[in-house]
TrEMBL record:
<comment type="similarity">
    <text>Belongs to the cytochrome c oxidase subunit 6A family.</text>
</comment>
<keyword id="KW-0999">Mitochondrion inner membrane</keyword>
<keyword id="KW-0472">Membrane</keyword>
<protein>
    <recommendedName>
        <fullName>Cytochrome c oxidase subunit</fullName>
    </recommendedName>
</protein>
<dbReference type="InterPro" id="IPR036418">
    <property type="entry name" value="Cyt_c_oxidase_su6a_sf"/>
</dbReference>
<dbReference type="InterPro" id="IPR001349">
    <property type="entry name" value="Cyt_c_oxidase_su6a"/>
</dbReference>
<keyword id="KW-0496">Mitochondrion</keyword>
<dbReference type="Pfam" id="PF02046">
    <property type="entry name" value="COX6A"/>
</dbReference>
<keyword id="KW-0809">Transit peptide</keyword>
Length: 142
C-alpha cells in the first residue's frame, strides 16, 4: 500500500520507501515546531494501478441473463397462459354421468358442520353425486 510516499508492507510489518519518494528528513534547527521545511514527493511519483487478478474471470456469465428470461416470459409463457385460458373458459362444463351406488362409496357416519350436512367441503353439484342419487349395483346371483 502506498501511503504518503511510503510503502507499508502490512504482512511483514516492515516499512520501506519507494525509489521515487525519499524519506522525510527531520526539521532543520532542532525539534521545534515549524522550524523545518516539509519534503513532498515529486509530482511524477504516483501510485501505480493495481495489476488484474488472474483468478477473477473477466466475463461475468450472468450479466445479461435477465434479457433471456424476459424474452422467455413474454414470448413463451404469456402466450401459453392466454391460450390455456381461452381453452378453459371457452368450453361447456361436463354433466353428471350415471353412477352405481356400491356399499363402500359415499359413506356418511356423521353430518358435516356446513350446509345441509350431506355435502363434502369440495362438493360440486355439476360433477359429484350425493348418497341416494345413484342406482344400486346389479345383483350378482352366481
Amino acid at each position: 500500500m502506498l501511503y504518503c510516499g511510503k510503502f507499508i508492507n502490512s504482512r511483514l510489518g516492515v516499512r520501506t520507501y519507494s525509489l521515487c519518494c525519499p524519506p522525510r528528513q527531520p526539521p532543520c534547527g532542532g525539534s521545534g515546531k515549524g522550524g523545518g521545511r516539509r519534503i513532498c514527493p515529486p509530482p511524477d511519483c504516483k501510485p501505480k494501478p493495481f495489476a488484474p487478478n488472474p483468478c477473477v474471470p473477466r466475463y461475468h456469465h450472468g450479466k445479461d441473463t435477465w434479457k433471456k428470461y424476459r424474452a422467455l416470459a413474454m414470448f413463451v409463457c404469456v402466450p401459453i397462459i392466454i391460450i390455456q385460458a381461452i381453452r378453459a373458459f371457452g368450453q361447456e362444463p361436463h354433466h353428471k354421468e350415471p353412477c352405481r351406488d356400491y356399499e363402500y362409496m359415499r359413506i356418511r357416519t356423521k353430518r358435516y358442520p356446513w350446509g345441509s350436512g350431506n355435502e363434502t367441503f369440495f362438493h360440486n353439484d355439476h360433477f359429484n353425486h350425493l348418497p341416494g342419487e345413484c342406482e344400486p349395483p346389479p345383483l350378482d346371483c352366481d
